Structures are given as C-alpha cells and as structure tokens.
Amino acid sequence: MCHPIHGSCQEKNSPSHPCGCSEQKAPRFLQPFILLVLKDKDSYGYELIEKISEFQFHHSPPDVGAIYRNLRSMEKEGWVKSKWDTKGSGPAKRIYRITAQGEEMLHGWAITVKKRKEALDQFLRLYQSYYKKREKTERR
Amino acid sequence: MCHPIHGSCQEKNSPSHPCGCSEQKAPRFLQPFILLVLKDKDSYGYELIEKISEFQFHHSPPDVGAIYRNLRSMEKEGWVKSKWDTKGSGPAKRIYRITAQGEEMLHGWAITVKKRKEALDQFLRLYQSYYKKREKTERR
DNA sequence: GCATATATGTGTTATAATCATAAATATGAA
DNA sequence: TTCATATTTATGATTATAACACATATATGC
Fold first, then answer.
1. What backbone torsions phi and psi does residue B25 show, to the nearest 5 degrees?
2. What's the rounded Cα separation, in Å, for the pair A59 and B15?
3. d(CA A3, CA A6)
4. How far is CA A59 from CA A49, A64, B20, B120, in A?
5. What values do phi and psi take at B93, rounded to 5?
6. Phi and psi at residue A83, in whole multiples of 5°?
7. Measured between alpha carbons, how far is A78 from A35 in angstroms, rounded to an integer?
8. Which of A60, A117, A124 sits opposite B124 (nearest CB)?
9. How far apart are CA B15 and CA A140, in angstroms?
10. β-strands B43-44, A80-85: how paired?
C-alpha cells in the first residue's frame, strides 16, 4: 500500500511516484482539498470544514476528526505548519500554512486528481453511449 | 456509513439516495466499472480484471480479491447473476450478467460519478488558476 | 509427470472512514 | 454570576475498505 501520510509508501522517488501519492490505488481526496484551500489562504480546522463543504465534493461536511487528524499528520510529514492564534474571539485557533513541501505534494495530487477525473469522464462517456442522456429525464 | 455491497446502508430509498450509493462520502468505483463492463457484454472475473485495467482508472489492475468479492456480494444483492461456463478451454468460468436491478444501480452510480467528476473539475480549475498549467512543464 | 496459464476464491493485516465523546474558551442571556 | 450556547481542538472506539498474500482447481503443452 502507498499512502504518504501513514508513512508506508515504498519507493517514494520512483518515476511512477512523482510525489509519493500519484500512484495510489484508491485515494480519497480530503488531503488535496485541504492543501488547495491552504494554498489560497492560511486557515484552521474549523474553517477548513466549512470551506471544504462548499466544494460540494463532500455532500455532507467532512468528518471533524478526519480534518484534525489529517492536519496533524500532514504537519508531521512537513506539508503544513501551524501556530496558535490567540487573537480574536472564541478559543485559540491553530492556524495552518502550506509549506514548500506541501506544494510539491499538491502538484502530485493534481496529477492523481486529473487521472481520476479522466477515468470518470471515460466512464460517463461510455455510460451515456449506452443510455442516451437517461439521467436528464429519469432523475427522481 | 453507506456502502451497498456491505449492506450497511440505511434509508436506501430516501430522496438523497437515488440508488443507495449516490451519497457516499468517499466511494471507490470498482462496482460501477464492473456494472458498466457487464452492460456491454456478459463477462467473468478474470476477464473483468483485464477490461477494467484498460480503463486506466486503475493504473495497476484492480485487486483480484476485490473483483471476486464484489461480484459475489453484487450477486447477493441482485445486481448481477452468474452461471458456470464449462465450455471452452481452461478451468470453468463463472459468467456474470447484469440484472435489471443492476442497471438501476448503474444509473445511480452514474449520478455519483458525475458529481465526483464535477468536484474534481472544480479542484483542477482552482489548482490551475493558482499554478498556470504547471503540470505541463514540470512533469518529472 | 511437471511447469505454466487460466480461473476462482479466502485469510489477514493495514489503513481509512465514521461515530461518539471530551474539553476548553469566549459570548450572551437570564 | 451562573448557565446555555457557539466555537475550536482533539481523542477513543468501531466498522469498512484496500492491499497483500496465499490457496485451490483445471486444462495445455512440453
């Protein structure tokens, strides 16, 4: 198996593993979404949950635990770094910023995401050739 | 949680669950690919592995165990049905055919796949707006 | 007979998702 | 000033899934 955040990935620098994640069999995409949101602007767990929900990738908001655990392990791997923000109202926030390494990771993820998207396109084209635009009319 | 092949899906007929799978959080797509291939032509485990590999959805062929276990549970659910084929050379093949229920399932999957694809498009558009076509030049 | 290709399966472990809960801090209301 | 609520971070436990490894059976060609 090969998932960088859990450190079990062999041959991280092989040509087929541009970022250590591109060749995963069945990745979920919480990590790259976190990285992409952070690329735009430093943020923290609670806010990330809201922002990622807007992506409609996750019909329901991503799991709270998953967000925090991912952030921590991503920090351990060096893709992001955090500092406490005690300013502002409410409890202190742990603000995350994407690192240079994290951006490298994001580039790798982009390749993975693109491949996946193309496969889904291929699926949909074939599907539509079998059932001409069925889903337009028969949506319950 | 909601994955039909493992039978843990609550409220299968709710409006947000058109096929019992459309609202999954992070589905992998082996099942719909199997169904789509079967829609084209009856097939069996070993052949499905080859055909699905060609989809380049799975950079490496799908797990052998996953294929057979999925086929068995899909049959239990009624999406496909099988019969032994002893004709031809080599060991007997268990030939699968998609059922009417299976096609309903496939329609639901198509909605899921489309949503997922759109989210990935959204990811890629944002990504490319941050790094103008970086992956074209900096591919290692 | 024996290696090999084809074909179907099972067992186990590693990883990830999900659900439940805890705990701390500020805010506003009673 | 106490109490409920919103915000924020976090952990524990359970289940689901993926990945890897292995086992079995049948034909085919040497």
1. -75, -50
2. 14
3. 6
4. 12, 14, 15, 13
5. -110, 145
6. -145, 155
7. 12
8. A117
9. 7
10. unpaired
Pull the structure tokens for residue B86: 């002893």
Report CB contact under 8 Å: B110, A56.
no
Burial of B127 (0-12, 13-18, 19+ CB in 10 A): buried
Residue A15: per-residue pLDDT:
29
Which residue intervals of A1-57 are DSSP H helices? 30-40, 45-54
Tokens of B89: 């050379």
* Phi, psi values for residue A99, rounded to 5°: -100, 175
Distance (Å, whole) CA B70 – CA B30: 8
> For residue B28, what are its two tokens?
């992998």
Q: What per-residue string of b and e applies to A62-89 under the rule 16 or more CB within 10 Å gives b?
A: beeebbbebbbbbbebebbebeeeeeee
A87 three-class SS: coil
Output DSSP code: residue B11: -
Which tens digits make up the pLDDT trace of B27-39?
578 889 999 999 9
User: For residues A79 and A6, what is the distance between their CA atoms, to the nearest angstrom?
Assistant: 13
Residue A28 with chain B: CB contacts under 8 Å: 26
Q: Sort out which chain B residues have CB atoms less than 8 A from A122's CB and list them.
A: 55-57
pLDDT at A88 over 50: yes
**Strand D contact at CB of residue A94, distance < 7 A:** yes
pLDDT tens digits for range A9-32: 333 333 233 343 443 444 568 889
CB-to-strand D under 7 Å, chain A 69-88: 69, 71-72, 88
pLDDT band at B124 (very low <50, low <70, confident <90, very high): very high
Please name which of A71, A77, A54, A72 lies closest in space to residue A4, comparing C-alpha atoms.
Answer: A77
Least confident among A74-83, A92-101, B3-12, B41-50: B3-12
